[in-house]
Amino acid sequence: MSDFTLQTHEDGVAVLTWDMPDRSMNVLTREALAEVEALIDAALADPAVKGIVVTSGKADFAGGMDLNVLAHIREQSGENPAQGLFDFTMEGHRILRKLERAGMDERNKGGKPVACAIPGTSAGIGTEIALACHRRFMAEGKARIGLPEILVGIFPGGGGTTRYSRMVGAMAASPVLLEGKMLDPAKARGAGLVDEVVAADQLLSRAREWVLSATDADIVKPWDQKGWKMPGGGPYHPAGFMTFVGASAMVNGKTKGVYPAARALLSAVYEGAMVPFETALRIEARWFVDVLMNPSSSAMIRSLFLNKQALEKGANRPEAPDQKVRKLGVLGAGMMGAGIAYVAANAGIDVVLIDQEQAAADKGRSYSEDLLDKGMRRKKVTPEKKDEVLGRINATTEYEALSDCDLIVEAVFEDPEIKAEVTKRAEAAAGPDCVFATNTSTLPITDLATASERPEQFIGIHFFSPVDKMMLVEIIKGEKTGDRAVAKALDFVRQIRKTPIVVNDARFFYANRCIIPYINEGVRMVGEGVNPALIENAAKLLGFPLGPLQLVDETSIDLGVKIAKATRAAMGDAYPDGEVDEVLFWMADQGRMGRKAKAGFYAYGDDGKRQGLWDGLAERYPQAEDQPDLSAVQHRLMMAQVLEAVRAFEEGVLEDIREGDVGAILGWGFAPWSGGPFSWLDMLGAARAVEVCDGLQSVHGDRFAAPDLLRRMAEEGATFYARYGDGAAAAA
Predict the structure, then answer these.
(1) Partners of 130 in the β-ladder
(2) Up-side HSE of residue 73: CA atoms within 13 Å toward CB?
(3) Closest CA to 680 of 728, 646, 727, 633
């Protein structure tokens, strides 16, 4: 079956329909590109065709380019992958330019109007195709349109960067191009992405009506007209000059210089604005290929698109019948439990939300109501949707309501005795096939499962806070957890549209195992007299959203103290973080518990906003006269996390490096530009990584000792993705 079909109607309008078989969303492949060109040629050559309407046979228009295509082109291009990618990109430009010119001669006469009828969501190359059309019509509704490529480490390279910036000017284009914002139909019309928003049942008829009434003047793009000038001014116009200066400052301020796509995009717009349109497309293509060849962008594409997509589709799901959740029980209506109830109900799952007191259960349900009200204020939620979601949440104190639940998630206090009590009560009320999950961030799953009558149906599901915003869910297998429980957890996480990773039971599992050393290293450096501003900015210059001191403020210092005490009690003399505890415990003694107390490593105003690092730190921990180099601080912060990731993989806690990379980025914001800890090690090279580790170990101790696996890979010249990128375990 073809991806595109062309049907010419009696009125002379040829409708070019994109409907990729066996896919829920249209994506552009290399074969489809050649196919659509042949149909465009046929329509343009047919004298009976008065114009063309490009549309979709699906509810949505398009989801972008299949990024696997770009990977295959690189592989098939031999010793010159850049040339292969450039040729492919220019081929796309040539075809879209053919559509845009639509048979017009050099005098801009005799062309055929081309409209785009967008029934639903359009992203990436779909939007770039729409921008090449002469007029864009979008159906009313909740769909979005935009160019979000920047979010996965590339930028719109199919002409979207050049066309859109020339349509609205560099400044107005920034939210769509540089921030990757997806806009609803009304905002898209205001931003110039679409020309008209119409009722869904009138979409095609309105597009055809316009095609039949359009004149030559209607179908000549501004940049094909004599005397065209860049909206808002080009680089040498006073206003345009200031726009580009400001944009450059903004890009460097937000990206800290570690995201190549943003710089390349801005360069393509700046350089392209000074030359004719055809040349500007070549400039865009060259910068696009430059980004594709950059290891950072390749790693981001692999982790944030290919790996993430594979995990969401169940790459590591055990063989088991469909385990979609019909009814969910949630024990504990605090912030975590309430958040879990909301995301489940919002995904169409009936929920029983239980707490000790009815008032507490009702408060947990009101959390969903507050989120839905916020959505209504932003016009993203209808009153009907609100009622529907709230109607799925039964807030109660009665455990008997769990009788027909097929999954229960316990989210009570991090106290083994309390968790054991609610486990027994819930299992007694639920049916024998119900899977029981505990939401814990630190307590061993195998130990908690001893309270269960059915340990093979007991599993950990670790949500990150706030549940409604955080995309990662960590699924933890206990020693006796069975395959059906794993499949149940995975199917549930996919139902609520989040990204799962599956790990084996161990202290702190995977995410916290890596986050805690990052925080500890920052706190340890404070005790050593390293300037706190140097610590925080070193982290931000690596691309971390939060420095370690801000992160511990956000998660609360008293929680850090609690974890430290529990870890010390469990490890005894082997406990390695006494220097960290000295700082954290002193902070707690001062009542500086973090942001929630409006006092932590940072000072806060009455409104809770950060006002800068707390001056009192310097009195207790004076800054050393000799401060370390920036790179030394960065190596400590990076290696503290990365080495734990490698150890987790080496020990079998983490079974798939793809989960390690995706989990790191989504779970705690690990330098997204790097693609995750394993991708970063591949970029750095195992040999260089070991060299850095040896240097850090000689100065700072054995916590920086290179794991045996990393040392072996350095000796063999191996990379993680070449050896384990298909999901193979370290033991293999």
Answers:
(1) none
(2) 20
(3) 646
Whole-number Å distance between alpha carbons of 679 and 685:
10
* 1 confidence band (pLDDT: 50, 70, 90): low
The 3-class SS string of 500-557 reads EEEEECCCCCCHHHHHHHHHHHHHHHHHHCCCHHHHHHHHHHCCCCCCHHHHHHHHCH
Q: 214-255 pLDDT, tens per residue?
A: 998 899 999 999 888 888 887 777 777 777 777 777 777 777
- pLDDT, residue 460, reads 97
**Residue 708 one-letter amino acid:** D
> If you average pLDDT over residues 439-455, what whole number do you get?
93
CA distance 126 to 27: 8
Are the CB atoms for 452 and 463 separated by under 8 Å?
Answer: no
Among the ranges given (40-49, 231-240, 374-383, 529-538), the one the predictor scored with the smallest mean pLDDT: 231-240
Residue pair 571/701 in contact (Cβ under 8 Å)? The answer is no
How far apart are the C-alpha atoms of 304 and 673, rounded to whole Å? 10
DSSP 71-128: HHHHHHTTT-HHHHHHHHHHHHHHHHHHHHHTT--TTS-S---EEEEE-S-EETHHHH
| CA 101 centroid distance within chain | 36
pLDDT for 356 equals 95
CB atoms within 10 A of CB 52: 26
Six-digit token pair at 161? Answer: 């960067």
**Among candidates 109, 107, 111, which has minimal Cα distance to 98?**
111
Q: What CA–CA distance (Å, rounded) separates 285 from 73?
A: 15
Cα separation values, 637 from 519, 534, 541, 643, Å: 8, 12, 11, 11
What distance in Å separates the CA atoms of residue 260 and residue 449, rounded to the nearest whole number? Answer: 47
As given in the structure block, the two tokens for residue 86 are 């450039």
Q: Is the pTM of this model over 0.85?
A: yes
Does the pLDDT of residue 263 top 70, yes or no?
yes
SS3 206: helix
Helix (H) or strand (E) holding 645: helix 630-650
385 token code pair: 């949707």
466: preceding bond cis by omega (within 30 degrees) = yes
Total Cβ atoms within 10 A of residue 383? 9
Using CA atoms, how far residue 694 sits from 544, 630, 632, 646, 712, in Å, is 24, 18, 13, 16, 14
Query: Could you give the angle at the alpha carbon of 599 between the alpha carbons of 598 and 602, nearest 5°?
Result: 105
Q: Which residues contact 153 (CB under 8 A, 6 or more apart)?
A: 259, 260, 261, 291, 296, 297, 298, 299, 300, 301, 304, 672, 673
Q: Could you tell me if 644 and 513 are in contact, meaning their C-beta atoms sit under 8 angstroms apart?
A: yes
Q: CA torsion angle for 79, 84, 85, 86 (degrees, to 10)?
A: 120
Q: Supply angle C-alpha 20, 26, 27, rounded to 5.
A: 105
Written as one letter, the residue type at 249 is A
Return the structure tokens found at 204: 């095609």
Within 10 Å of residue 566's Cβ, how many Cβ atoms?
14
Task: Give the torsion sign (CA, 699, 701, 703, 708).
Answer: positive
Q: Are strands 145-146 and 182-183 parallel, antiparallel or unpaired?
A: antiparallel
As a whole number of Å, the end-to-end CA separation of the chain is 41
Per DSSP, what are the bridge partners of residue 604?
610
Q: How does DSSP classify residue 287?
A: H
User: According to the model, what pLDDT value does residue 211 have?
Assistant: 96
Q: What is the rounded (10 degree) CA torsion for 448, 452, 455, 460?
A: -40
Kindly report, residue by residue over 135-183, the tens digit of the pLDDT: 999 999 989 999 999 988 899 999 999 999 999 998 889 889 988 999 9
- For CA atoms 503, 509, 511, 513, give the dihedral sign: negative
pLDDT of residue 79: 86
Amino acid sitting at position 650? E
User: Is the model's pLDDT at 675 over the cut of 80?
Assistant: yes
The pair of structure tokens assigned to 666 is 């989504």
Phi, psi (deg, nearest 5) at residue 574:
-80, -5
